[in-house]
Amino acid sequence: MLKPNAHYTELKDSYLFYHIAQKTKAYLDVHPGAHLYRMGIGDVSQPLCKAAIDALHTAVDDQAQESTFHGYMPECGAPFLREAIAAHYAARDVALDADEVFVSSGASDELGDILDLFERGSTVLIPEPAYPAYVDANVIAGNRIVHLPTGKAQGFLPLPDTKIEADVIYLCSPSNPTGAVLSRAQLQQWIDHANRTGAVILFDAAYEAFIEDGALPHSIFELPGARTCAIEICSLSKTAGFTGTRLGYTVLPKTLERCGQNLNAMWVRNRTTKTNGISYILQKGGAAIFTQEGQTQIKAQIAVYKRNAKILTDALNDCGIWYTGGKNAPYIWLECPGGMKSWDFFDYLLQNAQIIGTPGAGFGACAEGYFRFSCFGSVQETTMAAKRLKEVC
């Protein structure tokens, strides 16, 4: 008899955003027509930039002509996009071969799929607060999860613990949910630790485009030793508004080996077995992001979200509320005032200011008493939300 994957029964209910939706619906049922300031889910509001839109239109037209039509694309990514991404890294003094870049349908998909490279039952270290999908993907895979809690005293920045042994290490910088960014020295500690212990770092760099401090690393491959211990997973979702368009990429060095097996070669085999590649149209749109024109346009859009973050952090400063993030990330992680629990603060903001954020309790046990704001709304909405925040805090 077929036996389903029993690890699905070990998953905890994914109640966080469902519970937010239910509470929001209940409020609107009692207050029909009320205007809510939504700073919870991290979806973007700015449309795709002109360079991407023009490239997408051209690619659609290409598909209408026999001479320019494209069928199946290379499973690991079109050469024109892989080369554009490698050139983007080269501008930051990171040398990559184009075949070390793998085009994906986005970071969320890749963070789960990449586990195919590792033996089931591996020990996986997940610093918390953490993006919930890290945990769920590893539960489904049957891996042993070790949680590494962080806190206010360390600015919610994880550092290696020599007493903890792990095969795989998740790092997210800038962090979702906290917005905290690992310094070069802190990230170097993780690289040295991984090389010393034989662990592999899965480095989630989905928000690197928001880093404005030149002293902070955008890529783990800016640091020595990373090519023998790290895989970097990136996304155009928040960088260029591709949340609904779905495109990302993974950097997997050819120098990364474990137990005599080359992980780059393994991932080539995985992708050529399990995927038919990303569509020509989407890859042409993505390639436009890495042009000079595209980079200028997306930086202007990111500046809107950074302005939102400044508006919110100014309000928190006026209220005397502790927070991290905001400057180099699109998320702000704040301490709930008055010692409130995170769901109590959610209810308080909803009832008194019509503001919706995300309770920290949904990101791990150490996140209780904290709260996340997303900065992806309009400047007008964010300005009004900040005003209401100051009125109630």
Descriptive report:
Helix 2 runs antiparallel to helix 9. The chain has 12 helices and 15 strands. It is globular, with a radius of gyration of 21 Å. The protein has 393 residues and is of the alpha/beta class. It has 2 domains: 129 residues, Aspartate Aminotransferase, domain 1, CATH 3.90.1150.10; 242 residues, Aspartate Aminotransferase, domain 2. The strands form 4 sheets. The protein has a 7-stranded mixed beta sheet, sandwiched between helices. Strands 11-12-15-14 form a 4-stranded antiparallel beta sheet. Strands 1-13 form a two-stranded parallel ribbon.
What descriptors fit this protein?
single chain; 393 residues; alpha/beta; Aspartate Aminotransferase, domain 1; Aspartate Aminotransferase, domain 2; 2 domains; 15% strand
In short:
The protein is an alpha/beta fold. 38% of the residues lie in helices and 15% in strands. Strand 5, helix 6 and strand 6 form a beta-alpha-beta unit.
> What's the CATH class label of the largest domain?
Alpha Beta
Percent of residues in beta strands: 15-25%
Helix-strand pattern:
HEHHEHEHEEHEEHEEEHHHEEHEEEH
Mean pLDDT: 96
Tally of domains: 2
Alpha carbon gap, first and last residue: 59 Å
Gyration radius, rounded:
21 Å
Helices, by number, come to 12
Say what the CATH topology of the largest domain is.
Aspartate Aminotransferase, domain 2
Low confidence ranges? none
Question: How would you name the CATH homologous superfamily of the largest domain?
Answer: Type I PLP-dependent aspartate aminotransferase-like (Major domain)
> In CATH terms, what is the architecture of the largest domain?
3-Layer(aba) Sandwich
The coarse overall form would be: globular
What is the count of β-strands? Answer: 15
Largest sheet: 7 strands, mixed
**Helix percentage:** 25-40%
Order of strands across the widest beta sheet?
2-8-7-6-5-3-4
Query: Which structural class should the secondary elements be placed in?
Result: alpha/beta
